[in-house]
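User: Can you predict the 3D structure for this chain?
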Amino acid sequence: MNPIRNPQSAIRIAVLMGGPSREREISLRSGKAVSQALQSKGYQVFEVTEMDPLVEQLRALKVNAVFIALHGQFGEDGTVQKILEEAGIPYTGSGPQASFWAMHKELAKEKFEEADLLTPPWICADFKNVEVLKRQLNGIGFPLVLKPSAEGSSIGLEIVKTMAHFSLAFERVRSLTQKILVEKFIRGRELTVGILEDQALPVLEIKTDRPFYDYEAKYTPGHTTYEVPAQLPQKIFKNIQDIAWKAHQALGCRDLSRVDILLDESETAWILEVNTIPGFTERSLLPKSALAKGISFENLCEKILERALCSNGSFPKKDRT
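Assistant: Here is the predicted structure, written as structure tokens:
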């Protein structure tokens, strides 16, 4: 019997979920799904929903590795990754620096531009006065997008078509954060590419009846359909995958990510952002792309976990024959 399959010597895995961010409820859904998937594979799984004191909890549980299913701040911004590295506990996904760059959208955009990758024109700063910000908009023009510089799930995202509507949108976003990213609105097809084990998965297209792919479109059934693989000419399909992979590399990501891209009417691809801990709910995009590649949700979770288990050389790859 494979020792990893032996219940008496089961590998002990902590799934981190919930956490302190605004995305706590989505994170709990992701974590529960991951937990069930790994249990079905024979792992001994512990669900950790409160992060303080984290290291003490993990040591008491004697876990071999941690599967991070925390979305938003603390989970995706490099904080928990740094804590786990300092404690010497293997974990899934990108390291502290890549996580920090990806979570802070203006830093990610700087990295994309350094790698000669297209991203919509943008500005970002601590704007305490809307009039100061208005004077910075000449190089962008309307319509434009306002969003917190370090939130996920489209939280706080506003599309502004005219200056007359700008001030009100600004105040709504500023109620969530002092640091606001403003970028040119690009009209086009919404695409996303999952990266798994350092390879691009099939391109997925998002089609929604909402004005844009907002929080409601993401998590409320009936508003959105998903086409995977996306119906694109093969040359463009491959180009989108290549761009996504380069964005993943530009931030120094590892193991998995999801890259959001807009394809405009001239078939130019614009990178929006990289998600280092994409969702694992029943509506999440990375699992849909993996399934199109023939990878079940259970196998997807195990593949991600194996990268963490093998990161320090303690656990060999399992025999799948």
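Confidence is low (pLDDT under 50) at residues 1-9, 316-321. The two ends are 13 Å apart (CA to CA).
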